[in-house]
Amino acid sequence: IDGIVQSKNISPGYGYSKNGNATYGQGNITFTADKNFTFQLGYGKNFIGDGYRSLFLSDNANSYPYFKVTANIWKLKYMALYTNYQDIRGSEGNYKDYFQKLSTIHYLSLNITKWWNFGFFESIIWQSQEDQFYRGYDINYMNPVIFLRPVEYSQGSSDNALLGGSMKFKIKKKNILYSQLILDEFLLKELKAGNGWWGNKYGIQVGFKSYDFLWIKNLSLQLEYNVVRPFTYSYYYQPTSISTLQNYAHFNAPLAHPLGANFKEITAGLTYHKKRWIFEGLTTKAKIGLDTNSSISIGQDIYKPYNARENEYGYVTTNGLTTDIINTTLKISYVINPEAQFIFQVGVTNRMYKNSIENSSNNLFFIGIKTAIINRYSDI
Fold it and tell me: Which pTM does this prediction carry?
């Protein structure tokens, strides 16, 4: 975390960090029109998915202004999310110097049967300012109806679009298999060729949850695997002063998985509840290919334009400076106030970081009192 603070001037999940200080805030106003429709205006975070991570939209980055509409009709659940992100590079923390970027996200979830769910995701990001022209929130993207790509094509725009799909299977009520597929760019013929074309940009998540694991009441298990190809979520748009302004990121942090792209990750977590006591163990093991040249991209840093690549082919996931990151946390918590999620906790985290340049292992012991208002990821 300290490395991220020093290199990107952010405290992960919080705001701009300067001299070790960071600010954070969130809040919302929610109006429930009836049993089917809900409207929410807020400043905070959103998460789409069933996993520990999300390849669609996670709560990894800082809070942002948003307006959200959700509808529950029959077997369908639909969300339209309108957001305002910021690119803070070069701003020194001054809001007036933030570059504004806007987004529309749609997510449609369908319960095909009682045990089978399918979801469709789409997102589009554009910059609010193009040279001397203030574009603002494009009215064409305010349409709450899903399928934005035809709108984008009709405008002849080069805005950044993502598509995705998800599936979830319930097995005997207390077991869940879930998955996500994110598509940034993709050509089937290039995939079949197997030559590592840079433009095959996609990610896959597969996971499993089990409640009352091994028939032990209140014992939960979660296993998850994530892989994201190089250059996924990155972007290049020549007319802007910052060519990556439309990348899938906010406040110097990825909007999806905290590692960005060009990685493989396995997560295993075990949780046991006993009255107000909570015992937790979590391990994440990631292999990531880091960029080593400030002017050349091998596809990991989504803040580098994808046209900064050296080649068209030969990109394999984790190429670059191959780095292993293992985080293991053991934690004991006591819920003082269940309604406010007021929790006392004590624990230890071990972090191992290894590549051809650095090899380190550190232990962090912690004790504290918190409210579980937000997630903060320390395993990155």
Answer: 0.91
